[in-house]
Amino acid sequence: MAGSGAATWIDPVALMQIRSLELRAKAVVEGFFSGLHRSPYHGFSVEFTEYRQYVPGDDPRYLDWRLYARSDRYYVKRFEDETNLRVQLLLDTSRSMQYGSLPHTKADYARTLSATLGYFLNTQRDAVGLMTFDDRIEEMIPPRYRPGHMRRIMLALEQASEGTATDLVAPLDQIAGQLRKRGMLVLISDLLAPVDELETRLGYFRVRGHEVVLFHLLDPAEATLDFEQPALFVDAESGRELYVDPKAARARYLERLEKHLQAVQTSCDRLGVDLYRLRTDTPLENALGDFLRSRQRMIASQRAQRVRQRR
To answer: Where is the DUF58 domain (predicted)?
Structure first.
């Protein structure tokens, strides 16, 4: 278990020992909600507004037994944030994502994060889809909410291939051409791309009315270059070998990394993109809490838009 003020947070190394992605996702989501009242996310309550008839899969805790006694029918309380969203998960499976200084790689972490978000969205009755890509789209599952759809997404994540290259620009162009309806896009990547080109592509999505959430993944070793001895480093993309003394290179490396991170942040701020930076040793409950904030903001925006349209 790990911290962040909640005793139920699961250490990612322990989480990755669970072979099934679906069980990993379920453990994170259930742990998050069981610890919600002790966490920084306490207060994500919703306001009760009306009733609707019970359908299989609804949480039985919200059944109104007094109404059942009067009508002999099952009804559940409906809440204001019970608004269906269309969410497309965009998962980077490029070769650079195969790196990991921990027992798990960035790719392992990214697939588990995708599964967790998908599982959570399914519990909220949101339509969720998945696109995986390296230098081109590999898998494309459109957003749906129906029986069996979540299982299809989990199988695709289980079978996600190891990419042979990294090129965020080309697949994002492809993805922009495939999206027909507005919704929320969740991009999960290590963002090894020129920031100006990344900003242009994210700008396409925003201009077309999509909300964008970006999870930027970093391995702890990438974040610190915390190696003690000189070693032979291999470029994951080109295969180029380079002998490096980390102690001599660390200051310059960290300076360039910080410049890249700041440029990404500035671009996201300019575009109105929600950016969350995650090291792969961070409990996934933290990411789920961040995403929940973004989801609630989008729901509030949709609600406000409906109010304006009624006037």
So the answer is: 50-260
d(CA 95, CA 129): 23
Count other Cβ atoms within 10 Å, centred on residue 152: 13
What class does CATH assign to 86-310? Answer: alpha beta
25 Cβ neighbours under 8 A, 6+ residues apart? 112, 115, 116, 118, 119, 120, 154
Query: Whole-angstrom distance between the N-terminal and C-terminal Cα of the chain?
Result: 50
**Cβ(105)–Cβ(97) below 8 Å:** yes
Give pLDDT, residue 238.
60
Torsion of CA 17, 18, 19, 25, to 10 degrees: -130
Question: Tens digits of per-residue pLDDT, 117-129?
Answer: 999 999 888 999 9
Domain chopping of the chain, boundaries: 48-79, 86-310
Per-residue pLDDT tens over the stretch 261-287: 999 999 999 999 999 999 999 999 999
For 141-190, write each residue's pLDDT tens digit.
999 998 899 999 999 999 887 777 777 888 999 999 889 899 999 999 99
Q: Are 191 and 277 in contact (CB under 8 A)?
A: no
Taking every pair of C-alpha atoms in the chain, what is the biggest distance, in angstroms?
Answer: 77
pTM greater than the 0.85 cutoff: no
Q: DSSP assignment, residue 5?
A: T
For 16, residues 6+ apart whose C-beta sits below 8 A from its C-beta are 24, 103, 104, 108, 109, 112
Helix 284-310, helix 21-34: angle, nearest 10: 70
Q: Do strands 75-79 and 137-144 pair parallel, antiparallel, or not at all (unpaired)?
A: unpaired
